[in-house]
Amino acid sequence: MFKRILACIDLNDEATTTTILPAGEELADKHGAELHVLTVLPSYSMAVVGSFFPKSYEHDSLEAARQALTKLLHERPDRTPETKGHVSSGTIYDEIMRVADRLDCDLIIMAAHRPELSDYLLGPNAARVVRHAKQSVFVIRTDD
Predict the structure, then answer these.
(1) Are the C-beta atoms of 15 and 144 separated by less than 8 Å?
(2) Rg of the chain over all Cα atoms, to the nearest angstrom
(3) Extended strands (E) in the chain
(4) How far is residue 36's CA from residue 33's CA, in Å, rounded to a whole number?
(5) Structure confidence by residue, pLDDT tens digits, 87-118
């Protein structure tokens, strides 16, 4: 049913790595699908934002995220070589949809905001991806 799955995680939120990643691995294994794991960093390219950071900050942040994601994926107990990590920078929901389209994914797995936040149904990123993505979207509520 699924050929390419995009699991979206936040490297700074352990709940997404302990919930979303195993769900992606299980579905990829069940369907014989490729698993792509994406983390998105905010963009610092806007002049008003970027002026507060050193010139190499965005590059250094992306490289640190790549290294952290590579380490995380290589430490997975049931890791398959087909799992591929991706780091992107920009608006979270836009980048998730852009990467899913570029990789020709047919399923996106992502987390909803934790219940204590003000949006009780879905967080703004999950809601936008659900509304606008061409792919099926599996939203998992994560617990702290």
Answers:
(1) yes
(2) 15
(3) 4-8, 34-41, 84-89, 107-112, 136-141
(4) 10
(5) 999 999 999 999 999 999 999 999 986 555 44
